[in-house]
Amino acid sequence: MTQPVRIAQLSCGPEYSGIQHEIDEAAREVGGEIFFPDVALKDIRRDFDKFGLDVRSPDLKLAIARAIALVEGRVEADAVFIATCFRCAEAAIVRNELRRYINEHSRLPVVSYSFTERTTSGTLLTRMEALTTIARRRALLARETQKGLTLGLDSGSATTKAVVMRDNKIIGTGWQPTTEVLKSANEVIAHALAEAGVTRDEIQAVGTTGYGRFLVGKEINADLIQEELTVNSKGAVYLAGRQHGPATVIDIGGMDNKAISVMDGIPGVFTMGGICAGASGRFLEMTAKRLGVEITELGPLSMKGMGGRVPMNSYCIVFGTQSLVNALAAGSTREDVAAAACHSVAEQVYEQQLQEVDIKEPVIMVGGTSLIEGLVFAMGELLQTKIVVPPYSQYIGAVGSALLASGFIKDD
Amino acid sequence: MVKVFIYPATSLILSDMVARFGHTPLSSAIAIRERIQTAGLESPPLQITPEEPKKGLKWAAVEVPAGVRGRMSLYGPMIEAAEAAIIINDADLAFGCMGCARTNELIKFLVHQKDIPKLELNYPKNEDEGVKFVAAIKRFLTGLGAAK
């Protein structure tokens, strides 16, 4: 039996929020095991002083002592999960500093999360899976070239994508909005296979990722079923030709956003989520619909506008749409409104998520929204850097899956 | 016999003193161990569920962190039932410790608001202070008995 991945929990408040069992359950579902690094009372007093962050909550002092015990190797772990109460400013500071401290002083993958009493194991599952994947599959994630003939499928919340790769080249693609998960998957696979001119039987290995990865993976007998945090990171640095050294991957998706700090293609720190839909690709879809253009036309339209002329910065998709409607009613041009919508989404992601990872260049944007050039431009302005959008960026999860799946080819 | 709320509510020593003087301690009385292997310093002995933070809405609004509200679902009723209170400030972790500073602030505030006999002391830093500390608690608890 495989040993569980030992995930050290540094936290404040999960038990009294009634969600500790949800954390345990999420870890268990992906072959992980939550544990609390054993420290002595005297360690807490000493290490808290040493760390130098003068917080008042004793459980945060305990979290600091535990982080130091992990970094100094007094307690062994495979990964770290940092969790504190949502809306606690003191805890947010500690969470951020511990995440940074562990990332800088160890090779342990870290994910941080702020919870409420409504947090469920389902919410935490992908994050926990990414932690266990990084701990278990470092060798697989180190793969830099695709070999043989493989198929990658990304069953996303908004769209389903497939690619066929042969000897490090993409030879077929398929894409469509996700409706029925299996039907959409079968159709994009058929399209990618037809474009590649190969049959399903010729495919040597298959990988799946995205929300529907388990369902589709089981259906198509995938060799690799892996969450999108590690797969997209790998796909991003592979397609951008930045497999060595640091990088930051941003994926603004239909349902959630991912910001991943990567070193040599392996995620170190990542956040996943998005408080509200005002910071998602869904808001841009709604904007395009309201402006009467295809989503593919929103990018060029926004590049002709001046976003600063239209006030729009809501976390909430409903309030954001109100701003949009009000601006149009007040006579704003479609171009300005399109630019404002792109800036608004970029700003929400910047404020809510990018503060949780260390931005290191190159910054790579992937996913379908990376094709909306107004959004990429706005993010570049906010981060004061030139954003890299690799070719096939909308197929990032499928490419990552096809690349990693080649590690499962029998004679490889 | 008087119901005495103690802070830190986890202090076994304080809880024991209250009981020895014939009163009822209102506390969670969890032993703070030399080695901490649980999620928090005062991991709850009860089965706290996501319902507890909702019950805690009686004492703290929804924008207050869930951990504070979950704790208040436990300590709020104790404070309401309290007929006297002992508050020890800046206590050593080993004396009794409650993990969340924001909850601690709220608990102390609510106790201060109540019109009940209260004793508020700083945790002793040396033997002399320790003797005076115990004597003050003894006097307070004895006086409560007389008042009854």
Give the topology.
The complex is a heterodimer of chains A (412) and B (148).
Chain A: E1 5-12, H1 20-29, E2 32-35, E3 39-40, H2 41-51, H3 58-71, E4 79-85, H4 89-105, E5 110-115, H5 121-136, H6 138-141, E6 149-155, E7 159-166, E8 169-177, H7 181-196, E9 205-209, H8 213-219, E10 224-225, H9 228-240, E11 246-252, E12 257-263, E13 266-273, H10 281-291, H11 295-303, H12 317-329, H13 334-352, E14 363-366, H14 373-383, H15 396-405
Chain B: E1 3-7, H1 12-20, E2 24-26, E3 35-36, H2 51-55, H3 66-81, E4 84-89, H4 101-113, E5 118-122, H5 127-147
Parallel strand pairs in B: 1-2, 1-4, 4-5
Helix pairs in contact in B: 3-4
Unreliable stretches of chain B: none
Largest sheet entry of chain A = 8 strands, mixed
Q: What proportion of the residues of chain A form beta strands (DSSP E)?
A: 15-25%
Based on CA inertia axes, which overall geometry of chain A fits? globular
Rounded Rg of chain A: 22 Å
Overall 3D geometry of chain B? Answer: globular
Task: Spell out the key features of this protein.
heterodimer; A: 412 residues; alpha/beta; Rossmann fold; Nucleotidyltransferase, domain 5; 3 domains; 8-stranded mixed sheet; 5-stranded mixed sheet; 14 strands; globular; B: 148 residues; 4-stranded parallel sheet
Task: Tell me about this structure.
Chain A contains 15 helices and 14 strands. An 8-stranded mixed β-sheet of chain A has the order 2-1-4-5-13-12-11-14, with helices on both faces. Helix content of chain A is 44%, strand content 20%. By secondary structure, chain A is α/β, with parallel strands linked by helices. Helices cover 43% and strands 14% of the residues of chain B. A 4-stranded parallel β-sheet of chain B has the order 2-1-4-5, with helices on both faces. Chain B has 148 residues and is an alpha/beta fold. In chain B, helix 3 (66-81) packs parallel to helix 4 (101-113). The termini of chain B are close together. Chain B contains 5 helices and 5 strands. Chain B has a single domain, classed as Rossmann fold (3-Layer(aba) Sandwich), CATH 3.40.50. In chain B, helix 1 links the parallel strand 1 (3-7) and strand 2. Strand 3 (39-40) of chain A pairs antiparallel with strand 3 (35-36) of chain B, so a sheet runs across the interface.
